[in-house]
Each structure stands twice: as structure tokens, then as C-alpha cells.
UniProtKB/TrEMBL annotation:
KW Electron transport (keyword) present: no
Protein name: YegS/Rv2252/BmrU family lipid kinase
Pfam families noted in UniProt: DAGK_cat, YegS_C
Molecular functions (GO terms): kinase activity
TM annotation in the entry: none
Cofactor needs: Mg(2+)
Length: 319
């Protein structure tokens, strides 16, 4: 098992990483830890781990690290594992991964896995995979302006603080959003693979990360009052009831605006408009365990037959 660790993710909680690794090694699992040195490095490391014949490649970090790791697993038979060490860890909430270190270690050695179908965000000369969501509008502006030091100190609280700072001075744009060829106008848009946003907060109840396609949330009302209402509804899981919110399913989304507005993917500011969003060419298998709280719609499948012997002695193969 290879573990790709982003030491800058979240509040740099290496203690949790080592607690999980200790449990794995106590159970005889051979683990090799590779540390990222910069943004994008997780993709290179995942490619190396895939070439080395890893059967499980674990992303230890936040959603950005997971997305970069998945990008390096293209064409590989390896399965993806997650040790959530990020700020929001939305994907871990999405798949109900346990937060306790021991339960997480057990989950990582599990035979069971689910499909995770990433999305692909593209500009003319650039592309990036994402595992959870892409946002354009006020949320991307907040992500783009967040102070990394404050994020490290306050975690998710940094987003609340920055939202309050930006609310009064933000000029809400008019975005053109093409959803499977039909044009809409909105002040903000979230294209989501999953149901949650910013943590365990429900925004897209019908989303299915195990399948191709997206939930597209169009915020038709701009203005500070509307954004504040959205922010207040979010922690109560009531965002789907926000007035002026249009929710659609789609397989292809294009977003343009007269300005070069920032775009956030999985909580990282990644590019500026225009962008197009579609399904990644292939899914990955995400290792989940008995302790995971998996929604019934995320059908579990057993370990492939060639790996079944590892179940017998409770050990996963080393690299
Ligand atoms: N060693 C590194 N130094 C600086 N940046 C890094 C390094 N390794 C990875 N990164 C970048 O850090 C970004 C943020 O990491 P990540 O998303 O995992 O954590 P987070 O933002 O705290 O968590 P979350 O996405 O759950 O809010 C990644 O997209 C990646 O490009």
C-alpha cells in the first residue's frame, strides 16, 4: 500500500496520519509513505505508485490531494484509499468514512469498494480532475481570497470569516452557463459530483458520485442578501430550499462570463473562466469498509478475485 501525504493539507495533522499508519502496520500491512513537495506532485507520485504495482493508493490530505492522486491513477488497476486530513474533507463525508483512526485503518484494508466517477474541468490548454465539485461566483471568489495562514488556524471558520469580509464589496456577475446545450444565466454556479458541500452539508440530494454526470446548482439571485441566506441555510442542510436556486442534472457544462472570474475545484482556486466540465474518461474504485456509512445507492462490490487471498490472512499486499 502506498500513502501519498500532503503535509500542507488542513491543519497539518500528522498525528492522525501516524495513528492510522500505526494501526495498519500493527496488522501487518506493508505501507510506503510518499510526501508531496508542491501542488500537482501527488499526481506524479500516484503515477509512480501505479507503475510500482500498488494495489491500494491512499491519498492522505484534503479533497484537492485526492483529486490529484486520482489523476495519477489513470489506467491503473489500483484502488483508491483516503485518510482525510484536509479542511473540509467533503468526499470522506460523502462516502461516510469513519473518523476514528483505527476504524479508518480497518476500512483501508477492506475488500469492499465503490465506484467514484470524477469530473474533468478544462480550458483550451489546461485540464484538471475533480472529485467533488467546481464552483464559479461568490464561493470561488472567497476561496481565491482566503489567507492560507488563517485557513490553517481556523479551518472551516476561515471561510466564514472571508465570506463576511467579501459580502459587502463583491460585485455579483452574470454568468452564462450552458447545461447540455441549453443556456442559463446565473450569478453563481456549483457543479457537483456529490451531495455535500463545505463538509457534511447537503446541497444536491440527488447527486450520485458513483455514476457519470453532475448536479448543477444555478444561483439565479445575486446580491449580498441572497448569498447570506445561502450561507445561513447551508449548515442546516436547507440549501436545496433556497429561493432562486435551480437544480439540474447534466453531463456537460460550459461556463463563461465577460470577466476572467476565478474557478474553484474541490476547494482550491484553480483557474479562471471560461471552462467546460464533463466526466473523466474512467472511474476509480474507492476502498470503503464495514465501518463506513454508505448510502444504499452506492452499491458495494467485492474485492476482485485475484486479491481475495489477502482477505484470508487479513493482510494487504505490500508494494
Ligand atoms: N507540499 C505541498 N506544498 C504546497 N502545496 C501542496 C503540497 N502538496 C499539495 N499541495 C496543494 O495543496 C492543495 C490543497 O490541499 P488539499 O485540498 O488536500 O487540502 P485542504 O485544502 O486543506 O483540504 P480540503 O480540500 O478538504 O478543504 C492541493 O490542491 C495541492 O495542489
Amino acid at each position: 500500500m502506498f500513502v501519498i501525504h500532503n503535509p500542507t493539507a488542513g491543519r497539518r495533522n500528522a498525528g492522525k496520519l501516524w495513528a492510522v499508519l500505526d494501526c495498519l502496520m500493527d496488522h501487518g500491512v506493508s505501507v510506503r509513505v510518499l510526501e508531496t513537495r508542491s501542488g500537482g506532485h501527488a499526481t506524479e507520485l500516484a503515477r509512480y505508485a501505479s507503475r510500482s504495482g500498488a494495489d491500494v493508493i491512499v491519498a492522505a490530505g484534503g479533497d484537492g490531494t485526492i483529486a490529484e492522486t486520482v489523476a495519477g491513477m489513470t489506467g491503473s488497476a489500483a484502488r483508491l484509499g483516503i485518510i482525510p486530513l484536509g479542511t473540509a474533507n467533503v468526499l470522506a463525508h460523502e462516502f461516510g468514512l469513519p473518523s476514528d483512526s483505527k476504524a479508518l485503518a480497518v476500512a483501508l484494508t477492506s475488500a469492499e469498494s465503490v465506484t467514484l466517477w470524477p469530473g474533468l474541468i478544462q480550458r483550451a490548454d489546461w485540464m484538471r480532475l475533480f472529485v467533488q465539485m467546481v464552483g464559479v461566483g461568490f464561493d470561488a471568489h472567497v476561496v481565491d481570497h482566503i489567507d492560507p495562514g488563517v485557513k490553517r488556524c481556523l479551518g472551516r471558520g476561515a471561510y466564514v470569516l472571508q465570506t463576511l469580509r467579501e459580502l459587502s464589496r463583491y460585485s455579483f456577475p452574470s454568468l452564462r452557463v450552458s447545461v447540455d446545450g441549453t443556456d442559463y444565466h446565473a450569478a453563481g454556479v456549483i457543479v457537483s459530483k456529490g451531495r455535500f458541500y463545505g463538509g457534511p452539508y447537503l446541497v444536491a440530494p440527488d447527486a450520485l458520485p458513483v455514476e457519470p454526470g453532475f448536479s448543477v446548482l444555478l444561483f439565479e439571485n445575486g446580491g449580498a442578501f441572497s448569498a447570506l441566506r445561502a450561507g445561513l441555510l447551508l449548515p442546516f442542510g436547507k440549501m436545496p430550499h433556497l429561493s432562486g436556486l435551480r437544480s439540474l442534472r447534466a453531463s456537460c457544462v460550459e461556463i463563461t462570463a465577460p470577466e476572467d472570474l476565478p474557478v474553484q475545484a474541490d476547494g482550491d482556486s484553480v483557474e479562471t473562466l471560461p471552462v467546460s466540465i464533463r466526466d473523466a474518461p474512467e472511474p476509480v474504485r474507492l476502498v470503503v469498509g464495514a465501518g463506513s456509512d454508505i448510502p444504499a445507492a452506492f452499491t458495494l462490490s467485492p474485492l476482485p478475485a485475484e486479491h481475495a487471498r489477502y482477505q484470508e490472512n487479513g493482510k494487504m499486499p505490500g508494494p
